[in-house]
Amino acid sequence: MKDNIRASAVCKTWHDIAVSVRDRSPLLVYFNARLDQSKKGWLLMEHNHEGIKRLFFFNPFTREHITLPSLIATGAFGAAEFAFSCAPTSKGCVVCCISNRTPYRFLIHTWNVGAAKWVTEEVNKRAPSKFYGNNNIVFSDGYFWFPDQNGLGVYDPVARTWDTLYVPLPNLSSYLMWITEYQGNIYLVDSVSSRGQMRVIMFRLNRLRLVWEKKKICDGLSSFISDESSIMTYGLPRDMSDIV
Question: Does pTM top 0.85 for this prediction?
């Protein structure tokens, strides 16, 4: 509420926006559905009923609901991970899914807002290995980035091409490791145990040298980390800045 009041004092436009959401409580409970990713106030959710996977966007603030086409016709089966580029109310929104992982083959599915069906590409390359169950795909600079034990998988949804950047991971545990992005930079956040206490280490990807460079926590950034979605932002109040 304090942040809302501060925002309302900036100007008339900010005041109107802040007041409009001041008494609106988000609907945080949605039964029988799994959260795949969140961004810009939107949740990408997955509902399985009798083996049929149904995907939809849900905005807990406005109660808006957008249903996606079925994935059945794409041949996707088993575990699948999802990410989306921006709010689904934008015409440029793209949803990306990776499925059917085998050691040297996997499927990439993309859906553009307004399309009647998914587009599926078969990639006959080594599949990226997951960070031990973390559904941790990020969109940055026009590409979807997939974490891998040996580097990063990069998918271009426009050209529909896949590339692998061989960037060795820091010698840390990948059990508590996530990637996130901020203003076009890719960050790696690792939580490690030292003498019975947890500490956070952060790295930034140097795309020219293809190395992870250790960064100071947090250079004014605030990082919110989870398996479903990881967000970095700047300019929060003092008590919420420089935190993970």
Answer: no
